[in-house]
Write a structure and sequence with these properties.
Length: 170
């Protein structure tokens, strides 16, 4: 049994996962395309300025690939988009830490500068926050599908206690 098989589906939360993945993915694709138009070397360690950040061919390619991946997650939606947001967010944060250590070095193959590191941290935290939205907290509401999945007996009792107008339709 896969983890995704046991997760509930909630369309209201799915919109948050979908729109956040799509928006950030679109921004990454646009950033990558602008990086390609500057014709900077693929492994240039100095890069060229694009949207206030440094970029080279490799960073542009990675930006487009991750942007397309996030937009594909947005199309798929639901729990898949949520999990993808969390995973890509973790990768962005790890990338920020790794590239922070490589700044101004000869192994800075992504041409990162401090703006890129900060951007990587901010996008990573945003993706993780949007991916975990409504899934991870100690105070989920009783009608949240993740709370119901974790507390099936209590969810049945709550279901009985709710007025009929609050019960799911269909």
């Amino acid at each position: 049994m896969k983890l995704q098989d046991s997760l509930p589906v909630d369309h209201r939360l799915g919109q948050v996962y979908r729109y956040s993945a799509g928006t950030i993915g679109l921004f990454l694709v646009v950033f990558g395309i602008f990086g390609f138009t500057n014709h900077v070397g693929f492994f240039s360690t100095h890069g060229d300025k694009v949207a206030g950040m440094s970029s080279n061919g490799l960073l542009s390619l990675l930006s487009v690939l991750f942007g397309v991946l996030l937009m594909a997650g947005a199309v798929r939606g639901g729990n898949d988009a949520s999990t993808l947001n969390i995973c890509v967010g973790v990768l962005f944060i790890l990338s920020g830490f790794v590239n922070l250590g490589l700044l101004d070095g000869k192994h800075n193959f992504l041409a990162f500068h401090m703006q890129n590191v900060l951007f990587s941290f901010v996008v990573g935290v945003l993706l993780m926050m949007f991916g975990m939205y409504g899934r991870v907290t100690t105070h989920l509401p009783y009608d949240n599908p993740y709370w119901k999945e974790r507390h099936p007996k209590a969810a049945k009792r709550q279901h009985v206690d709710l007025p009929t107008s609050a019960l799911p339709q269909g």
